[in-house]
Amino acid sequence: MLYDNHVHSAFSADGSMSLEQITALARGKHLGVVLTDHLDLDQPNGRFEATDYAKAGAAFRSCGLLLGTECGMVPSLAHENRAFLNQSAPDFILGSVHTYCEAPTLAPSGRTPLPPELFWARYLDYVLYCLKTHPFIDSLGHLDYPARYAPYEGLCFSWTRDEKELSAIYRFLIEHEIALELNLRRFTKDNLEEFTENYGAYRSMGGRLVTLGSDAHRPEALGERLQEGFDFCRALDLLPVHYEHHRPVVEEREEHL
Ligand SMILES: [Zn+2]
Ligand SMILES: [Zn+2]
Fold it and tell me: Which of 29, 124, 241, 247 is most deeply buried (CB count within 10 A of its CB)?
């Protein structure tokens, strides 16, 4: 059974699905689910009640739902993030960067965006800084996040352009046995070349661990492109995993999927 390792429920301010709904949908699609609700301590509605979350997760564990958290990495909040996660004790921590002050749409409005050729290198340097302050995460979420929003057409996520910064990130992940997420939101045919280049580079540096996640906030997105992501990883000799008690468990293909 494949796991969707990036799913938001109503515990996230921008999510609406109940755990009952998620587990019923997952059962219908023959998927496992790792709940990754938002912990963004720099955002006004960026947290949930740790003990309620842990309690709800425990109640649904027998239904194939594992408890994770998408931890918004902000260097100055690393200590608070860790304290919160110690309390909620998820199986899996997905570390993501949601706010970066110079990114056009990740930033407080009114700032002048950087030119694209400067933006990505600086953003990736910042991601490395976030990683260094959050070495306790299990997987690095949506490294291509600004490509969803930044208006830099033709200048998306690129190993060719940003090899220096990306290789420093991949090296850190490999040395700390942190997985690299394949976020399936942008994983379409149009972007396949970009993903092949980047994940191929990660593999050639010795990286193997990948978590697959739809980043679903609504029912129809649950498990979207999961099988394609799995096949893509296997073709590159990458190892899709999910986490139980912060330990990687290798995903296996199910023939009827
Ligand atoms: Zn995210
Ligand atoms: Zn997310």
Answer: 241
**Ligand that lies nearest to the alpha carbon of residue 148, given by its number in the listed order:** 1
Distance 37 CA to ligand 2 centre (A): 7
Ligand index nearest the alpha carbon of residue 72? 1
CA of 183 to the centre of ligand 1 (A): 9
Tens digits of residue pLDDT in 84-133: 999 999 999 999 999 886 555 555 455 666 676 778 888 899 999 999 99
State which H helix or E strand residue 68 sits in.
Answer: strand 65-72
Does the pLDDT at position 223 exceed 70? yes
In the chain, the domains with their CATH numbers are: 2-250 (3.20.20.140)
Q: How far is the CA of 185 from the centre of ligand 2 (A)?
A: 10
User: Does 142 score more than 60 pLDDT?
Assistant: yes
Place of tokens 């739902």: 65
CB 233 within 8 A of CB 239: yes
Cα 129 to chain center, whole Å? 17
